[in-house]
Amino acid sequence: MNAPGTFTLGPGDGSARTGRLTTAHGEIETPVFMPVGTQGTVKSLCPTDLQDIKARIILGNTYHLYLRPGDELVAKLGGLHRFMGWDGPILTDSGGFQVFSLSGLRRITEEGVTFASHIDGSKHLFSPEKVVSIQRNLGSDIMMVLDECVPYGADRAYTEKSLGLTTRWARRCREAHPAGDRGQLMFGIVQGGFFKDLRAQSAEQIIEVGFDGYALGGLSVGESRAEMYDILGDAAPLLPAERPRYLMGVGAPRDLLAGMAAGIDMFDCVLPTRNARNGTLFTFQGKVNIKRAEYREDDSPLDPTCPCYACRTFSRAYLRHLYIAKELLSYRLNTLHNLTFFSIMMERARQAIREGRFAAYRAEMEALYPEGE
Ligand SMILES: CNc1nc2cc3c(=O)[nH]c(N)nc3c(CCc3ccccc3)c2[nH]1
Ligand SMILES: [Zn+2]
């Protein structure tokens, strides 16, 4: 097998491309959608379920795992792979974004981010060195640098000042983890808000530091689709073509397609897992809100074209019953299905790119999932 970090490009179609990324826990075909497993579990699923639905790489959260059960404990017990029984690739976020979106009291200084735990209010400091140490303890295959995800609507002066700090933090993360040490990769994160020249400035600085892959941060933070697509189209091509490009926090089916068209290789989003828990199911015939009365006596499968256990075994009537009755099995079956949908959608996208028919595939999927997800 190639050394971790090896990224081999396959056939492309316009700016869309296929590739293969080697990690210490296996190879990933790109473009890839990565299910979020914040607290060391993709909610309601076992690792064997993830294998069954062909999930290739999952996400963990430095912020959550540091606070509970503690990265030192996870390290003592053999690392996150062994702790959660998942032997495939794991990518962990640095915690920067989670601090801004979850914790109370936070202060940003040159040193790092001080914050209060959302669990017990205790005070903590995330410095670049600290978040690298946490991710090394967890043993993640891909570590993200500490960055400031600039809030939507931040003015130019704040955005420009922030990207400078994010670059200095990126340098400190790089210094704290020698390239490829222990097979653990590190991705840089480009900020710059919604200012194209600041995005270019941030990209240039982060690329100059040098990473195994590059992420576009600061998006999917409440902006309109048009605003995200405008920045995406401009910033994605600035990232080195020979390294993986990761669009953080994206997204709905049509956003994944737009991202792939712009040359993005990796995506993450809570949509399939979160929507599963509120009964919004994605099918190849469009969206199904399983709680609707129209499914009360519907003996047909959720999606007759879907190979997942839920669609092979149960009726819409039963899935609706579980949801209405708030049965735990509802989470599991709905999540199995939604993640299978995303996995198949990405597999078909990779195939469409290989066969030079991505534009047609994108149009077909967009017809199913019109504006607003
Ligand atoms: C939903 N929208 C969304 N926009 C994001 C922007 C950033 C950003 O600018 N910087 C960082 N570090 N992360 C971001 C994330 C979190 C992605 C994630 C979650 C869980 C596990 C692993 C990774 C974002 N998520
Ligand atoms: Zn299914």
Automatic annotation (TrEMBL):
**In which pathway does this enzyme or protein participate?**
tRNA modification; tRNA-queuosine biosynthesis
For this protein, the record's InterPro entries field holds: ArchSynthase1/Queuine_TRR, TGT, TGT-like_sf, tRNA_ribo_trans-like
Q: Where does Zn(2+) bind?
A: 306, 308, 311, 337
Residue ranges of every copy of the tRNA-guanine(15) transglycosylase-like domain listed in the record: 15-370
Q: Which region ranges are annotated with the description RNA binding?
A: 249-255, 273-277
Q: Which keywords, in A-to-Z order, does the entry hold?
A: Glycosyltransferase, Metal-binding, Queuosine biosynthesis, Transferase, tRNA processing, Zinc
Q: Which reaction does it catalyse?
A: 7-aminomethyl-7-carbaguanine + guanosine(34) in tRNA = 7-aminomethyl-7-carbaguanosine(34) in tRNA + guanine
Q: Which domain of life is it from?
A: Bacteria
User: A single GO molecular function, which one?
Assistant: metal ion binding
Q: Which cofactor does this sequence's record say it needs? A: Zn(2+)
Put simply, this protein is called Queuine tRNA-ribosyltransferase
| Species, as recorded | Solidesulfovibrio carbinolicus
